């Protein structure tokens, strides 16, 4: 099955505009003047979409897949495991990063790329950033997932802006000694801990 059929099957169409937007987004944003890069991106993104189907078919989670690639080889290919693991953070991208770090025995993935079937949510984008992955290629826009009930407007929820109201969560920075001793942890441990 070719990529366009996979993309079409992976997105519940609300109207023809969403599909057209997704196809055009892949062609315009992720296209590269060199054909080998397009073919390569197509191959790995297709694998991410296949993972999205796999996750839904086996009941593990939502229709999201991710593939971590290093030197043109797939390190890991994963899908959303939120339902299987009863873990709201087990998104495809986070799961792929966790597994890639374990497999490569390192926490920094600067020589890797990640392919995601859908535009990453803020949590997944944060994980991609923290792992120092050098390149992200995604297929569907976040709006395609939102159209079928997934809501990832985390920033809007925290600020109380946009469609969503303020999150049902009190967010407060500690004051007094609590804040001071929490900040001292960084100063007192900086010589003992080196992340990268």
Estimate what percentage of residues fall within beta strands: 5-15%
Described by the principal axes of the CA atoms, the overall outline is globular
Output the CATH homologous superfamily.
Answer: Cytidine Deaminase, domain 2
The secondary-structure class comes to alpha+beta
**Number of beta-strand segments:** 4
Number of domains: 1
CATH class: Alpha Beta
Q: Helix amount, in percent?
A: 40-55%
Total of helices: 9
- What CATH architecture would you give? 3-Layer(aba) Sandwich
In whole angstroms, how far apart are the ends? Answer: 41 Å
Q: Widest sheet: strand order?
A: 2-1-3-4
Radius of gyration: 19 Å
Average pLDDT metric: 78
CATH-defined topology:
Cytidine Deaminase, domain 2
**Poorly predicted spans:** 1-32
Largest sheet: 4 strands, mixed
Work out the oligomeric state of the chains in this entry.
single chain
Order of helices and strands: HHHEEHHEHEHHH
